[in-house]
């Protein structure tokens, strides 16, 4: 029997000073061998944990938490989820068994929603009711800054301290200096700030990063003793969790405009070592520290083009030209995957569906004489020669994959025949908005195919 566990958060922070080991929340009755995931259920007290004497910086803030497969009945699970299991095959009359899965709560103050489902050859599919775990501390600091900045760009870094305590405290807020950035307070700094019950305080610095890449920002908030009053109240210091430290990363990108150069070479080895040199000369105005290089060696001449080729499949849409620009590549991709033995039934069904949709859509742009234009006969007096030829070739090639009515192919062919001069050339009629279709036609060695 196997079960899946997953957790989804909201934004937030940690529960206690040190990583908190807690069982996953939930229960799941399974016919013929019930078990439950041990934990705090709704309506029961949330587990209380003694705070550690030393505050651990918070730096782990995932969007989701846990997606683990746990094997019970004594089988070994993955290294992250298997702890112990007392469950085994049993009669329905036996008491439900439990499996405890210790996990470390991320550094996020939020309410986590946990769910679980299981599959069993004997009992089938089981689904647990979702349950919740609140990770919370009454006093914490939060940093606010952009996802990324350009090196040398100045921006405001804000640190906000939240207090959900029932009394007033005085808090010392600080930003750890670093050689990676320059920071100066945007207002006159104080030794400590007064925050009363359910209050907050924001301190800002004007920051300028000096290096590229990931820059760690470390801020702390500490409740301190003071003889100063907060309003008319005497300040107190929490006995547990009187300091919070948070570490977050800022992405610093290079200034200027990115320029990329690619060098390709075909090496034909015949049993002997072969080497090839490439000039890696940087331009004179290169941004310092922004240069990087990578290389890739493939044993297939088409390796770079065909990697994840099925991801290039797209459903055709848009006007007559856009539709065909997306319709035709699906044919080539499907044929290549089929010839190289990479075509799966799932990919084939997807591609066939796209081709059928594109074929039906293209007929909307057909003229009565069999030609095609970008917007159809209601918007154009005559079809375009290049687009009609492209439709003819693509429909002819698609006939081996989907049903294409012979009349549609013959009509397009007859329309082109009417535009042919005595010397064999074709008159160019109508408007072509996307010249890439024309370039593709001119550069295709198979443009005489039917």
UniProtKB/TrEMBL annotation:
Query: Do you know which SMART domains this protein is assigned to?
Result: A2M (SM01360), Thiol-ester_cl (SM01419)
Q: Which PROSITE patterns match?
A: ALPHA_2_MACROGLOBULIN
Q: Where is the signal peptide?
A: none
Q: Give one GO molecular function term.
A: serine-type endopeptidase inhibitor activity
Q: Where is this region: Disordered?
A: 77-96
Q: Which UniProt keywords apply?
A: Disulfide bond, Protease inhibitor, Serine protease inhibitor
Pfam family of this protein, just one? A2M
Instruction: Provide the Gene Ontology terms for cellular component.
Output: extracellular space
Query: Keyword Cell division, does the record have it?
Result: no
Q: Which residues form the Alpha-2-macroglobulin domain?
A: 64-175
Which family does the record claim for this protein? Belongs to the protease inhibitor I39 (alpha-2-macroglobulin) family.
Can you name this protein? Alpha-2-macroglobulin-like
Source organism per entry reads Notechis scutatus (mainland tiger snake)
């Amino acid at each position: 029997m196997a079960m899946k566990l997953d957790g989804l958060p909201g934004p937030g922070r940690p529960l206690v000073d040190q990583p908190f080991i807690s069982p996953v929340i939930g229960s799941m009755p399974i016919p013929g061998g019930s078990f439950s995931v041990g934990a705090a259920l709704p309506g029961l007290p949330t587990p209380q944990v003694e705070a550690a004497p030393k505050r651990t910086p918070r730096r782990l803030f995932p969007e989701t938490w846990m997606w683990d497969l746990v094997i019970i009945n004594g089988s070994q699970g993955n290294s992250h989820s298997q702890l112990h299991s007392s469950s085994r095959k049993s009669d329905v009359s036996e008491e439900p068994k439990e499996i405890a899965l210790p996990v470390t709560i991320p550094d996020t103050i939020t309410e986590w929603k946990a769910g679980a489902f299981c599959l069993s050859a004997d009992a089938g599919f089981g689904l647990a009711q979702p349950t919740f775990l609140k990770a919370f501390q009454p006093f914490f600091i939060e940093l606010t800054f952009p996802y990324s900045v350009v090196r040398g760009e100045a921006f405001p870094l804000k640190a906000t301290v939240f207090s959900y305590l029932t009394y007033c405290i005085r808090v010392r807020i600080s930003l750890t200096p670093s050689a990676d950035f320059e920071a100066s307070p945007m207002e006159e700094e104080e030794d400590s700030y007064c925050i009363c019950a359910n209050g907050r305080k924001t301190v800002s610095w004007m920051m300028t990063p000096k290096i590229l890449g990931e820059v760690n920002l470390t801020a702390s908030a500490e409740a301190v003793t003071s003889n100063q009053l907060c309003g008319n109240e005497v300040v107190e210091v929490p006995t547990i969790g009187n300091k919070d430290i948070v570490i977050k990363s800022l992405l610093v990108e290079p200034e200027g405009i990115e320029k990329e150069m690619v060098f390709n070479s075909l090496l034909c080895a015949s049993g002997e070592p072969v080497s090839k040199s490439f000039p890696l000369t940087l331009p004179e105005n290169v941004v310092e520290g922004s240069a990087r290089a990578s290389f890739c060696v493939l044993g297939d001449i088409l390796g770079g083009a065909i990697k994840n080729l099925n991801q290039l499949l797209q459903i055709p849409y848009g006007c007559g030209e856009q539709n065909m620009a997306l319709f035709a590549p699906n044919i080539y991709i499907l044929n290549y995957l089929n010839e190289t033995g990479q075509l799966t039934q799932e990919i084939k069904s997807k591609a066939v569906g796209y081709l059928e949709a594109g074929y039906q859509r293209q007929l909307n742009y057909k003229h009565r004489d069999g030609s095609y234009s970008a917007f159809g006969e209601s918007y154009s007096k005559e079809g375009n020669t290049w687009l009609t030829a492209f439709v003819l070739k693509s429909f002819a090639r698609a006939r081996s994959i989907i049903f294409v009515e012979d009349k549609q192919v013959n009509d397009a062919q007859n329309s082109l025949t009417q535009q042919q001069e005595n010397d064999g050339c074709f008159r160019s009629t109508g408007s072509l908005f996307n010249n890439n279709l024309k370039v593709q036609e001119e550069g295709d060695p198979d443009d005489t195919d039917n």
